[in-house]
Amino acid sequence: MKLLIPHVPVWCIVMIWAIPAHSKLEDDNNASAKPSFLGDVAIGETIDDIISPSDVCKEIVALIGSAISNFTLCSVTNARPIHLCEWCVENYIKVVEVHRDFLAKVDEAGNPCKEYFLNLDRVEIVSDAYKYVEDLWAKGKCNSCFRTLPNGTLTNNATEEVRQFVTDYERTKGCFDDWLNANITGLNLTACDACKPLYDQMNNKYMEIGELYGENVCVDVVDTMNITRELWSELFQCVPERKVEFWLHIGFGIIAIIPLIFYFFAYVLSTKQEARVLQQHRLAEVFANTSASGMSDLSGYHSSRLQESTRSRSMPTTEPSDNCDNRVT
Ligand SMILES: *[C@@H]1O[C@H](CO)[C@@H](O)[C@H](O)[C@H]1NC(C)=O
Ligand SMILES: *[C@@H]1O[C@H](CO)[C@@H](O)[C@H](O)[C@H]1NC(C)=O
Ligand SMILES: *[C@@H]1O[C@H](CO)[C@@H](O)[C@H](O)[C@H]1NC(C)=O
Ligand SMILES: *[C@@H]1O[C@H](CO)[C@@H](O)[C@H](O)[C@H]1NC(C)=O
Ligand SMILES: *[C@@H]1O[C@H](CO)[C@@H](O)[C@H](O)[C@H]1NC(C)=O
Ligand SMILES: *[C@@H]1O[C@H](CO)[C@@H](O)[C@H](O)[C@H]1NC(C)=O
Ligand SMILES: *[C@@H]1O[C@H](CO)[C@@H](O)[C@H](O)[C@H]1NC(C)=O
Question: How close is the Cα of 153 to the center of ligand 4, in Å?
Fold first, then answer.
């Protein structure tokens, strides 16, 4: 033991400790917690009859398989350029409907069909296949492309903005096509000028959709815009479109203007104060004899402000008498 202990790797201990937490041992021991697919045994039934789902349940589960298969085929074939949401929405709705029917379905003997298929083994074929569809749809954020009924049911009807976006895209694409077909050598600034209004319109619509849905713009729209932007800047080599970093521009604008404002006020104040300072020198001379210290401080203050603005911002406003003397002499 003495020798063995140092050789036992730490991860081994961790694994031994971790395994029970992830296994379904507790569940398996508790038979009554498991949903049972063993219904009441009728006369003349064989074991196969008992352990196999009834025909009603087999049918509905086959329908799920068919629907998921149709959706999968559609999603894979429309992966590039991506039209997952737009062209597979009907398949998706079908999967959801059939799955809902399946969960509610009861066979002739009164057993819910789902009890034959769900939570019985570690593979969970039916629910995993369904989960795959749900996850893919959610990942594409496809719901945001379509209207939903007041009761929350998804329709295959695209939202108004998305319809307009698709129309704008078709137009822009048409313009691109015209220029491609006209002649390749003609692809220069003229093509950019010709298609720019359409391209801008599409871009604006995209921004509008982005404002409405934020992160949840559906993948078809995002990808369509991405491709169009690439065509625009790579293929047609038009000026890279102004990304609407509107606030960034505003920010730069303000930063650029600040020094101008500063110098403007510095100029205005200094010309005013120069006049004042000249007057106050006279006054200071008058009051010097009567040793009115407050007044001379004040004049010093103004002249130091003047020098501060013409030389350096960080100059201290104290020691007024020095500055005053410099001006006077
Ligand atoms: C087994 O399941 C039953 C009913 O669901 C529950 O009352 C019981 O506490 C469970 N036993 C264990 C050991 O989990
Ligand atoms: C899947 O597609 C096939 C062929 O288009 C169709 O016959 C079948 O009804 C579809 N399945 C479902 C569940 O809609
Ligand atoms: C929602 O409403 C529509 C019609 O308004 C209906 O066809 C559909 O079954 C409803 N869905 C749910 C889940 O109630
Ligand atoms: C889609 O929405 C339009 C309204 O924009 C409506 O006229 C049309 O009936 C809807 N189509 C379906 C299939 O719900
Ligand atoms: C290319 O297009 C320009 C204007 O669009 C036209 O003048 C020129 O004849 C075209 N060349 C060819 C080879 O089609
Ligand atoms: C763009 O191409 C057209 C037609 O080929 C030509 O007339 C025009 O001068 C070109 N413009 C530039 C800026 O190259
Ligand atoms: C746009 O397309 C490029 C390559 O074609 C890709 O690298 C990039 O991630 C895409 N952007 C978005 C937002 O999809």
Answer: 14
**CA 135–ligand 7 middle distance (angstroms):** 21
Has residue 95 got a pLDDT over 90?
A: yes
Question: Are 116 and 37 contacting, i.e. CB atoms less than 8 angstroms apart?
Answer: yes
| Residue 154 burial class via C-beta count within 10 angstroms: exposed 0-12, middle 13-18, buried 19 and up | middle
Q: Whose CA is nearest to atom 6 of ligand 3?
A: 153
Please give the Cα distance from 133 to 129 (Å, whole number).
7
Give pLDDT tens digits for 159-210: 999 999 999 999 998 888 887 776 555 555 677 777 888 888 999 999 999 9
pLDDT of 135 strictly over 60: yes
**pLDDT band (50, 70, 90) for residue 70:** very high
